[in-house]
Write a structure and sequence with these properties.
about 160 residues; alpha/beta; Glutaredoxin; five-stranded mixed sheet; two-stranded antiparallel sheet; about 30% helix; globular
């Protein structure tokens, strides 16, 4: 079943890259008592993700946070090393938290996984953005295949 507005983000573990190596972080720690913008991409370093999706949130981080957002996070079905490298490449430090969902467990728990086996990419996440307040989804924009409208930074800012 796909997550929807009004649902609670499931309690589970994701991974972040740190100077000391990968570190687990729980979704409870990310979302509890906070207003969070989370967006998901099919993969780090992929064309739309690198040219438009992540850069839009990096460039608009201050404006988004000025609307009462405590944290902006990006999640992808990649490992923490890849997410850390992509975050550095995109200048996300201090603006967007880069979360790794290495085995697509989070994508599957939300019902937003995407089967890209035919393209040699395995199971990934659909492209989406959500706003959650204290772990409860208040906005969810899931893109149609190939789309980039409801999950971009400007759409999220309009929903805040």
């Amino acid at each position: 079943m796909t997550i929807k507005v009004g649902d609670t983000i499931p309690s589970m573990k994701l991974t972040v890259a740190t100077a000391d190596g990968p570190k687990e972080i729980s979704t409870d720690d990310i979302f509890k008592g906070k207003k969070v913008v989370l967006f998901a991409v099919p993969g780090a370093f992929t064309p739309t993700c690198s040219a438009k999706h992540l850069p839009g949130f990096v460039q608009n981080a201050e404006a988004i946070k000025s609307k009462g957002v405590d944290e902006i996070a990006c999640v992808a079905v990649n490992d923490a090393f890849v997410m850390g490298a992509w975050g550095k490449d995109q200048g996300a430090g201090g603006k967007v938290t880069m979360l790794a969902d290495g085995a697509a467990a989070f994508a599957k728990a939300l019902g937003l996984e995407l089967d890209l086996n035919a393209r040699g990419m395995g199971i990934r996440s659909q492209r989406y953005a959500l706003i959650a307040e204290d772990g409860k989804v208040t906005y969810l924009g899931v893109e149609q295949p190939g789309g980039f409208e409801v999950s971009k930074a400007e759409a999220v800012m309009a929903a805040l």
